[in-house]
Records
---
Amino acid sequence: MTELLTGSQILCRALVEEGVDLMFGYPGGAIMPFYHALPEYPALRHVLVRHEQAAAHAADGYARASGKAGVCVATSGPGATNLVTGIATAHMDNTPIVAITGQVPRAMIGRDAFQETDIIGITQPITKHSMLVEDVTELADAVREAFAVATEGRPGRVLIDVPKDVQTAKASWTPAGRGFGASAPGSTVVPAGHAAVDEAIRLISLAHRPLIMAGHGIILAGAYAELRAFAERTGIPVITTLLGISCLPEAHPLHLGMPGMHGEVHVNRAIQQADLILGIGLRFDDRVTGNLAAFARGAQVIHIDLDASEIGKNVPTAVGIVGDARETLAELAARVPARDCDAWREEIAGFVRPRLENFRGGLSPEGILTAIEEASTGQCTIVSDVGQHQMWVAKLYRYQRPNTHITSGGLGTMGFAVPAAMGVALARPETPVWAISGDGGFQMNMQEIATMVQERIPVKMAVFNNGYLGMVRQWQQFFHGRRYSATPIWSPDYVQLVAAYGVLGRRVESANDVDEAVRDALKAPGPAVLEFMIEQEANVFPMIPPGASLSEAIEDEPAPPRLVRA
Amino acid sequence: MSGSQAVAVLLEDRLITFNRAVGLLRRRNLPVRSIAVGPTATPGVSRLTIMIHSDEATADRAVKHLQKLIGVREAVAFPARDGVARELALVKVRAPADRYGELLDVVQLYHAAIVDDSPDALIVELTGSESFVLCGLRALERFEVVEVARTGTIALAPSSN
């Protein structure tokens, strides 16, 4: 007689079959049967968070660091809706996530039952696929389909909504049968067409001022060696977008820097002077291009992307290649004739501008980041929150190892770093993980320190405290007459606060104390929090104002508004 | 150059898939003029016809986005003028006894048919291209039009596509 399993047991077993060994979640009424079955499957480690948003961010961080799909679990109603911001964050940055939510029993769906929400409806725009599983015999296949869809092609978010009575219903185990490719024809990987590659090679050979713009797709494809080989063969300088950072070691002579709104002037000027841009695995987001009408007017664009709908979406392309970054770059590196760009690179070196140093008192983001890098001999992973500090972390830390910079780029979600770092730390237990936040973002999810203590996740946290929502304050200073509406933000005494969690805390007010504080944090066996008292009104330079082109950077403090006496 | 583009989608016959496709049209801000959905010869597969007013590049981009959706089997776009586009209208009309003959003449002129005839009102079935149907509706407005139900446009590309 075949053994009958409950839906919950089937769900657990299917997850184990998919190679899941870690989930972040929070129980509740509609997901209780799943949690009842969970202890029977010790291969599935569950991390109890303190807010479901953190579960989604942790699953995201885990996925970015490991390359596997991250898994988060929540109950129906408010549990599910609390996942939304985390799912949207993963959506904008193309991270594979599988979210499992409990749902009210089938007979109650659609009647505004207690803790019922149409989470499938709510998450439609931010998921690649979602399923309400109404038949327990389809549950195992639903899990298989979810992981296949989440991880193939352009990675995606998949949500599985399981009614409570389906979790308790019984069925026999259905072994894996049919293969799962997604049922959408456009999602299979299309090999690069040779004609397009030939044309790309022709344009590359003829260009006098070519540039490579490398985005997140390089990291998702793991195409580090191929990018490097191609760049070295052609001598073309490499620009990395915010999410492409660390796809090429920053010490490499061809590494140029980050473009766009806060990109260095010489990088943006190189783009505006280029005659050929080879864009790989990026989507020409508005933060990167500035005003599209004025973006790289002199350049022809070759766009290599896995997703056909991205090519030509924002920027007109001379050659579009739909394909995997790794395969396409390998083919290009093998076939492109060797050349150099020495004259062009010298020209770009002449565009470099002196940096405006506006950190009085010596305690600067650069000093802090250098101390962190040296103390871990460049071995750590940096997870950044959102704001001014995010730009400093992107531009001033020297990333040498691939995929060591993780941040919320597309959605720009404050409160991302602390929970995401938990996921990163569990994916990479051998090297230190630093979560760097501003005082605003840190307060959004600092409750997760409790998760770190309970689960023994030794994330090292740095808070760049300037007493303001810094990036908003900067905009208010530059564009709104220095009216600081709702941007001064009070913080508790973080050292005292984290002591209540049993965690090491240090406040650093002088550059002389940075090295020791960083070493103490790394020596501490568990989580640690360092609070850095940063210059309050420091600004990120350069800055391209909204709507302006890459050629119109602000490099200096605007004059303060003049007082007019009546 | 903008014109009427037809986007035809074959998709799984499930509300969630339909929801996903229509949600995408809204989210991508596509200039939709009509939507029609109905069954196909294949069980479990529906055909969704979306008429948008745009240039061909926009329609092609809509197709690329639609093709990524789970549950969508196929999507194509073509300029409406390159294919055959038709819609159907049911029109409830009242005419006093002395104008009945005039109404019948209009029905005949537009190759329409009376599909329901009751003492207070008739129902006229009118099919054709969008402009033909609009002319027919205008002609019927000489009488007392009580209610109109239109299907929206369906379209097939010519066989060379």
Note: Confidence is low (pLDDT under 50) at residues 181-188 of chain A.
---
Amino acid sequence: MAGIASFAAYIPRWRLPLAAIAGGGREVREGGPEKAVAYFDEDSATMAVAAAVNCLAGFDRARVDGLLFASTTYPYKEKQGASLIAKALDLRRDLWTADLGGSLRAGTGALRAALDAVRAGSAANVLVVASDCRLGAPRSALERNFADGAAALLVSGEDVAAEAQASHAISDEVIDLWRTDDDPFVHSWEDRFVVERYQESLAQAVRGLLEKTGSRPADFARCAVYAPDARSHKRALGSLGFDPASGVQDALFGRLGNAGAAFSLLLFAAALEEASPGERLLLASYGDGADAFAFETGERILKLRDKRGVKWHLARRKPLLDYDKYLRTRNLQATEFDRREGGGVSATVHFRDRDEDVSFRGHRCRRCGTLQFPYQRVCYRCFAKDEFESVRLSDRTGKVMSYTFDYFAGSPDPPLIVSMIETEGGCRVQLQMTDADPKEVKLDLPVEFAFRKIHEAGGTPNYFWKCTPVR
Amino acid sequence: MKDAIRDKVAIVGAGCSQFGENWDKAPEDMIVEAAYEAYEDAGIDDPQARIEAVFCGALYPSRGSAEVAESLKLFDRPVSLVQNYCATGTDAFRYGVFSVACGLYDTVLVVGFDKPKDRGVSGPSAAQTGVRGLPMTPAGWFSLCAARYFETFGAGREDLARIAVKNHHNGTLAPKSMLKREITVDDVLKARIISWPFGLYDCAAQSDGAAAAILTRRELAGSFRDDPVLVRAVSIALAPNPQSDPDFDFLRWKPTIYAARQAYEQAGISKPFEEIDVAQVHDCFTLTELLSYEDLGFCEKGSAKEHIASGTFELKGELPVNTDGGLKTFGHPTGATGVRMIYENYKQLQGKADQRQVEGATVALSHNIGGAPQACGIAILATP
């Protein structure tokens, strides 16, 4: 037996109205269709961490023994994303980590692998995280279609809230959407070709699943299904015999957008957060073929209602009316000083400091109890030498002790809010604040912590933590 | 012994180059300008024979101690480079004082210099070598106390603005300052924000400059001049990085408090406001000067704004601060600043400060604070 023990989402706050992309000098107002876009300090890895943190809330992280990371947009071609995410989550080192990429089906591919591993007994609690940050060329139809986001599922044999019953996979060799190593933007063939290939593979996968399980569309209370756009979503499901009016999870076009490898899992999370016990759920994704899964919820699904899922994130939005700002955050607008210039961070420094920088761990003096950051050999307060124990700070809250608004340091979205934070337990840390407006910053403001990209010096993403107002 | 150096060492000559964007001057030019003014002031016409040791202060020297040795042709003797963030100049002076007080050398030269404008400041700041503690914006570091200080004591940008106005005014009276321009409170409040609450006029600019001082033992001072100035105290103190200090209260800078305690102990001062006649205080940012009034013990914590409003620290006030216009109008060539302050105090105590003169000044204090900030240097000079 294997299934979903927990789930969560991460959708960035910024919402870019599709009207802003169209341009043409029209005034852009809120209220029309929009898409979620990552902030300048976010990427596939940071969003994956955020979704995983949300998913693991209340779960003993030491029990996670596998992490599969699915993305088509992870910045490195060689340097594993799963190990980075695992370190940011402060997971143990004896952990099965792997990246899946290359296809929009990577998310469900990871899910399949996790379920099989748990069933086979080669892992007990596998975190599946899918995250994508795809680029369509500026002002193109793909740019209007794509969105940024992440979803996380904890696959386990224990405390299962939705049991996996069966799956069926179809492979297809087709170049309908593609992106090579040298392309910053995804390319697409004609819309109708893309839609037809989608419908064909999806139908085969779903019909195969129905046959395998001896079920009919009406048996499924909810279905979460990838689609390239809203219309083909409705038509594909309609032609398979699913009633779009009942049980079909809204594909959220116009509110979220096509979130790539994370899309089907985000829609699945959206379905799970509304599900009651005893419901059968269909999950299907598409990309070079299609995957279809059948799940059945149990009583425990009700215990997961408080997760930060799709609804929680969709409610937290910040309109981005300035299309130029969006372009700047994606390095798509030439500037005098490229953020990627410079020698970058030393690999040895990164290695030595990874407990602080990636896991955001501090240290408590065993003699006087003072929490300190970063690593010290001698205690600030009682001067005890080497009497420290390592302590996780990333999952605490904190409060603002002081702040400034830096208009001088380069930023695509000035000012940089820089704050002095005191964590629960009294640890003082200087952190940038993100996803915040200067107007809401004040002394003693409660904050939580987020794994973000601090800079891109040397052409690589360099990560650390920032704080965000608790919402 | 706390008073081991008190009044044992005298300044018998001092010099200061023009401070500014000295595009057409090499470090050598500024070092020679400052040192030779000091030689002339001390009546030394054969420095290569007379100067026995050199202490240089520079935070960005391109050639280290050799910069000074080559410029002044001072070889076959110790030439040391001292660095301690913005307290560099004061710390180099401190080593000069020790070397004379111990009797090893009779005549010692101290030179502070820096040429930050050669590095160029039109782009983003230095290489990102890590991911923590960013951005590296000094205005951000020094603004750390603002939010909590403002809220706790009801102070605001207007109080800071008055400090900028005061220093701009004083700078118009100092021949070697970079900026000679009166400004208004309104100018300050309307300027673009660098790092809140600091606008353009709340921040001292970087500039190029050099300053020098010649030290000897008190008993030998009479052979140089009738009006030597005595070194009453020199202190340096480091405090924890305020960004990690578990006990930082965001209302004061600990380095200043620590260095002041040391300096007052050395000098035997118990009532700084009454006993000090003139002070040069590190106004890298306006708030730094404001906090220093309190942290140096000139007034109670939280009361600075009242004194700012009543003019206590203006040129005609009870305790004039930054009589030459401070970092605000001289700019901040880091290594030179501490020595430039000593130059101004030296002139004040000799009665040679022209229109900036504080009448009857007999005790003068100079103060530098820098880094996160973590390092502070204080020197107290006095008439014999």
Note: Chain A touches chain B through 47 residues (CB under 8 Å).
---
Amino acid sequence: MKMLRVLGLSAFATLFTQCASIQSVSLTQIPKERKKVVETTASRFIFLGLNFNNDYINQLTDDLKAQCQGGVVSGILTKDETYNYFLGLAITRQVTAKGYCVK
Amino acid sequence: MTKNILGISAAILLSSCAVLHHIQVGDIDNRKGQGKRFEILYNETGVNFDEAASIGKGMTRSKKAQEDIEFVRFLIEISNMGPRTGNPTFNDTYSDGLLADILKECPSGLVTGVTSIREMNKYPVISGEIVKVTGYCMSGSKG
């Protein structure tokens, strides 16, 4: 009985554990000069799977351009991640783009 | 009856869902100014045969019909094995004209900041399978 209770509590605890997973990742050509790192993140909290558009990712390129005026952003690592908070009912989708600004 | 109709209507209204499958941000050349932003979007209808079969089975009380529907669903599923994003479509060449369309939007060919997005608009049974490419067209001559 005690064992069952412990198992039940453990299972219950795991339901509230954040679980991170990567949906996709990509990398562009890496430049020789890698002094300045530029990074931007776009994310959205999605509850009960209700997400009616993906417009939150539109800002990524503009953010990188703003951080590298007059230069070239290269070696861009794009990561699309999902953070699952509770049984997939509450998740955060986060896209991170990180690269190097070469002037 | 009213409760059932309201429940089904709510499920249909709330079931539209945008799903992001893949995104890739390309190199950005910011040396020659802002450039003109362009966006190219391809949309093809996808079908979720699992949902279609579930609805079909729910609409009939005949066990034989339900078994037949399940068998058809199984045949379609094993014919569409393999990795994919989103639902199967009847045409998988809908985004093949991408390069030509980019050159139409940017005749100079000086394209930078290309972001490739693969997403899906999910509805009951069907879905919109979307390939979207955004970028910036720089003016000037090549080389």
Note: Chain B is about 35% helix and 35% strand.
---
Amino acid sequence: MVPQETPRLDAVFHALADPTRRAMLRSLSDGERNVGELAAPHAMSFAAAAKHVRVLEDAGLLKRRAEGRARICALQARPLAEAERWLAFYQRFWTEQLDALEAVLKETQETP
Amino acid sequence: MSAQPDTPANFIEVSRRFDATCEAVFDAWTDPAVAARWLFTSPTSETHATELDVRVGGAWTISDRREGVDYVATGQYLEVDRPRRLVFTFGMPQFSPLFGRVVVTCEPDGAGCLMTLRQEELPPEHHEGTIEGWRLMFEGLAVALGG
């Protein structure tokens, strides 16, 4: 009934709250990238980029694998779908609640 | 709907204009007799119990039975400022250990009331983005959601 509210959802929203990480996810949606490629569009050091990558990985949004000495990152989209479902569920839930509130307020006024 | 610097960004925000005073709208949340008719219940619910201790630090519990299952929503009031602002935590312990924070604000709008509800989940220090930003991002990644 209610979508799973797990600590991972916390981690996903935390990951998404940063514009650099959102940009990295957009880039990854076009294909795999190594950490250097993820860092390149932003004026940031490799170490800073690696920190962002770790946050994304902790949220389950990114998976890394080694290819020789390179670390290749790939998008994992499932947690995004979960976060989107959470948002959509509560949006719909409160809209329906407010529909019910509106009906009650109307009834209250019609029977003084 | 822009996020102010010191307030957490919102996850969900819905606004609705009601043909009623702010007092009537506020009381619909806090008067158990009125709240029982719409809050955390449904037209097909079998039984329903509404306990509201409406004061800062007071607890609230609403229990609603549907198809033989009791759904319990509970929380605590953080701010009670009739008729303008009501803030409470909200959780459903059966489904999740996490509690969110709901902020209800009522603004006069002509003879009626513009009510806004915000539901926030994360503590402020975890949260910098805006809901619009996420939505844009979700749309942009719609292709990737096939995974």
Note: The helical segments of chain A are 7-16, 19-28, 35-39, 46-58, 78-110.
